[in-house]
Amino acid sequence: MPPSTITVDVLIDPEIRCPLSFENIKRAVITAASDRGYRKGQIGLRVTDDVAIHQINREHLGHDYPTDVISFDYGSDDETIEGELVVSIDTAKQKAEEVGWDLSKELTLYIIHGTLHIAGLEDQSPLDRRTMRDAETRVLQTLGIQITEKLSPDFIAPSTRAETPDGPDAPKDEHCSSSTMNHASDDSSGVDASDENPLEAIPQTKTKTRGKAVDQDRSDFGRIP
C-alpha cells in the first residue's frame, strides 16, 4: 500500500494548552482516514474551547450549547478526502475525568471520531454505531492506545448517564450547510483573517457555504445509551 500523502493543517488556539503535539494530532487524523482507505487529500483541525465551539455549533447547526467535536465534510471520492473538524479541549477535560482516562486519549478519540465522519462513517443506526465503534478501536490500537472494558467507547459512566438529557432537545447528530475554516499548520505564522468573517467571536475563521457539518456529542461515542 502506498504511503499516505494526506495533508493535515492544525490550528491550536493560543490560549489552549494541548496535551497532544502537532505530530500526534496529524498521525491520529491520517491513521483514521487510512483506516477507511483514504491516502490523499487535506484535512484541517482546530483545537479550541467550549466558548468557541459553542458559537460554531449555534451558528452552523442551530444548537445553543458547547459540544465535543464538529466535523465538516467537503466531499470525498474513492481516493481523496477533504474536510475539517473542530474539537473542544474543555469538554475533553470534563469527560476524561468522568470516564477515568487521560485527557490526551479523550482528545485523540474526538479527533478519530470526527475524521471517521469526514471519511463517510455514520452512527445513526445500531449497525452504523457498531461499525464506528470498531473503527475507533482499530485506530486507537494502531496508535498504541489499548482499550479496556472500562475505557472503551461503549463504557457508560454513571455520572454521564445521569446527566443525559431526554426528549426532543437531547443532543444528536445533524447535517447542514457548513463553513470552512482557515487553519495554520505547525510551521505557519498565522492564517488569513477575512473581513467577511461572520463569526467575529471566533478569531482566524472565515466561512464558505458548502459541504455538510456533523455535530457530535458524548452520546455518539456509545457511552450514553
Strand-pairing-aware structural class:
alpha/beta
Assess the beta-strand content as a share of residues.
Answer: 5-15%
> What is the C-alpha radius of gyration, as a whole number of Å?
16 Å
Largest sheet: 5 strands, mixed
- Number of helical elements: 6
How confident is the prediction overall: mean pLDDT? Answer: 74
Number of β-strand runs: 5
Strands ordered across the widest β-sheet: 1-2-4-3-5
Explained architecture:
There is one protein chain. The chain is α/β, with parallel strands linked by helices and 225 residues long. The chain has a single domain (7-220), classed as Collagenase (Catalytic Domain). 34% of the residues lie in helices and 15% in strands. α1 (22-35) crosses α5 (126-142) and α4 (103-118) packs across α5 (126-142). It is globular. The model is unreliable at 150-211 and 218-225 (pLDDT under 50).
Write the layout of secondary structure elements.
Layout: E1 7-12, H1 22-35, E2 40-48, H2 50-61, E3 69-73, E4 80-88, H3 89-99, H4 103-118, H5 126-142, H6 158-163, E5 212-215
Parallel strand pairs: 1-2, 2-4
Antiparallel strand pairs: 3-4, 3-5
Helix pairs in contact: 1-4, 1-5, 3-4, 4-5
What features would you highlight for this structure?
225 residues, alpha/beta, Collagenase (Catalytic Domain), five-stranded mixed beta sheet, disordered C terminus
Provide a brief overview of the structure.
It contains 6 helices and 5 strands; from the N terminus they run βαβαββααααβ. It is α/β, with parallel strands linked by helices and 225 residues long.
